[in-house]
Amino acid sequence: MSVQLSGRVLIHGSEKPISALALGTAFFTLADKAQWFDLLDRFLALGGTVIDSGRVYGDSEAVLGEWLAARRVREQVVLITKGGHGGSAAILPADNTEQALTEDLLTSLRTLGTDYIDLYLLHRDNPAVPVGLVMEWLNRELEHGRVHAVGASNWEYGRVDAANAYATQHGLQGFAVVSNNLSLAVPTGPFYPRLVSVDRAGERWHSRTGIPLVSWSSQARGFFTGRYAAEVRAQADSITDPYTRRMIEVYCTAANFERLRRASELGVQKGAYSAVQVALAWLLHKPFPLLPVVGPHNGTELESCVNALAIPLNEAECRWLNLES
């Protein structure tokens, strides 16, 4: 099976085909680049086109830059990266905003070894920064051709509306996509500060506007693998690893364990699919344009994600998985 091209997800400003899944690279390291080169090769061979990165993702952009140079496949790839991280707070900087944004973008272009970004996302909003300043800067970069489409990552929808309204009023291009978190497992709060998840109002916003959602942590950081079982939650006080403790705090709720149970049950009924595959399929059946970012670490996990594209779900099954019936 291939990473089928999706007719639902259109990124205004990008003429390239958009695959049904985007490959996340936040954990890529130069020390293990051979492993990641192989994964990127396999993603491309399966028909994948969209690759997601960010300035604050460690070696991610550096690994991608070396892979793009080695494989000479830049024009086959829809490259997403993120910028706008000011100081220790890692949010849109309120001081010298335009200079900081420009430096971030130019650094990404150099590291990636390209002269343009297909989709450039501003990452982690700062309400102290006027939306007009942001949209004016982004549109200058669109005119320069250094970015082909723009979006917002971890922005509240009221701020996206304000930014797009400013763009409309001034004859500018608005945000083409929003990249916030959505998965079958509902988090109790942001996994890290200033992260934004999509609630029911957010889903209605995407349905109403038609603006695509690029959903990060689309498989709930591995919750549906079952490795964070109820027994792990019961041992929370003795667990010292901060990531595991945060997974317990954010995802290990009774409601999410029931979602996991139902996804496992339905996967068996559908033909030996795993819970994590069913959870991904649930996202792909949303009634608005959605592009899930997946984070496989090897070829087996990648193929698992791709095979989830074949799982048919009807509306009643989607509602049942989300505890709505």
Question: Can you give a write-up of this model?
Answer:
The chain has 12 helices and 8 strands. An 8-stranded parallel β-sheet has the order 6-5-4-3-2-1-8-7, with helices on one face. The mean pLDDT is 93. It has helices spanning 33-45, 60-71, 97-112, 131-144, 157-169, 200-209, 230-234, 242-251, 254-271, 275-284, 299-307, 315-321, and strands spanning 22-24, 50-52, 78-83, 119-123, 150-153, 177-179, 213-215, 290-294. The chain is globular. The chain has one domain: TIM Barrel, CATH 3.20.20. By secondary structure, it is α/β, with parallel strands linked by helices. Helix 9 (254-271) packs across helix 10. It is 42% helix and 10% strand. The longest helix is centred in the C-terminal third of the chain and has 18 residues, at 254-271.
List key phrases describing it.
325 residues, alpha/beta, TIM Barrel, eight-stranded parallel sheet, 10% strand, globular
Summarize this, please?
By secondary structure, the protein is of the alpha/beta class. The chain has helices at 33-45, 60-71, 97-112, 131-144, 157-169, 200-209, 230-234, 242-251, 254-271, 275-284, 299-307, 315-321; strands spanning 22-24, 50-52, 78-83, 119-123, 150-153, 177-179, 213-215, 290-294.
